[in-house]
Request: fold
Amino acid sequence: MTVRTKNILRTTLRISGMAFAMLLVLVLFTGIFWGSRHFVVQQHVIFYDDLPAKFDGYRILQFSDVHTGTFRGGRENDIRKMVEIINKQQCDLVAFTGDLVNRESLELAGLRDVFKKIKAPDGVYCILGNHDYATYSSIPEKAQKADVDRLLFDEKGFGWTPLNNEHVKIRRDNEYIIIAGVENYGNPPFPQYGDIYKALKGVKKKDFIVMLSHDPSHWKMQIVPNTSVQLTLSGHTHAGQFKIWGMSPVSLKYKEWSGIYKEGTQVLNVSEGIGGYIGPFRYGAWPEICVITLRKIPDSMLKDQKK
Reply:
C-alpha cells in the first residue's frame, strides 16, 4: 500500500467517524428533546364475528408505560399534554396497561390531580406492570408491598379501577363485553403474578373478552393456548424506544413487540408506551396512544368468507 493510499484511507476513516459521531449526536438530541414528547395517536380497527351487536363501533383507548419518573424535573407538562390528548379522543373506555412508575409511587407526587382528569363514559381500568412492584427502588424489600398498596390507592384515587386478576362487565342494554386484567406475567426475571383463571372465573366461554396484560410474552405463553380471549392489550417493550424503518433491536428479544398480531381469531395489540426506563429518549418509537375500534363483521361479509 502506497503512502498516498494510506493517507486517503486515513482521511476517509476520519471523515466517516466524524459523520457517524455527528449523526449519533443528532439522534440523541432529537430523541431527548423532541422525540420523547412527540405524542402520536395510533388508530386500529379490528373486526370480530362474535362481537355483541350493541358494541359495534365501541372505542377503547389504550395507553401504557408512562414511567412517571421520566417526566420529573421540569417535564411535568408532558404528562398534562398526554392527558389532554387522551381525553380529546372521547373514547368509550380507557385502559392503562401497566408501569405507571419507574421505581416507586413517590414519583406521582404533584401529578395525582393531573391523572384524575383522565375520563371515559365506561371508566378507566388499569393493571400493574413489572416496574409497579417497587423492585427497582432502593427501599427495603418489606416496604415494597406497602408501596404497591400505595400505588393502587393512588390509582383508585384517580378514579381508575385496578383489575388485578379480576374482570368487570361493560353493558349495553341486554348485551355486554368483559374487561379483564391480570397482574404482571412475563419471562424471568420479570414477576409472574398474573392468574388468567382467577381473572376469568365465572366468565362464559361465549363471552367477548378484552384482556389487559402488561407483558406481551404472556399472550403466547398462556392466553392463546388456554383461553378464547378475543383481544389482549399489552405494553412493556417500548419498541426499544428506538425504531427506524419499522425495525427495533427489541425485536431480537420479543416476537410481539409493537402493534397488531393475530393468532387465529385472537388478537394482540402491543403499545409502544409513553415514557422510558432508560430516560427521556425516544427515536422512531414515539410516545404512543392507541385508539382501538371494535367492529362486528357484517353477515354479508361472513357469507362471502364462507363461499
Summary: Helices lie at 3-33, 76-88, 112-115, 141-158, 196-199, 217-226, 299-306. The longest strand covers residues 40-48. The mean pLDDT is 91. Residues 1-33 form one domain.
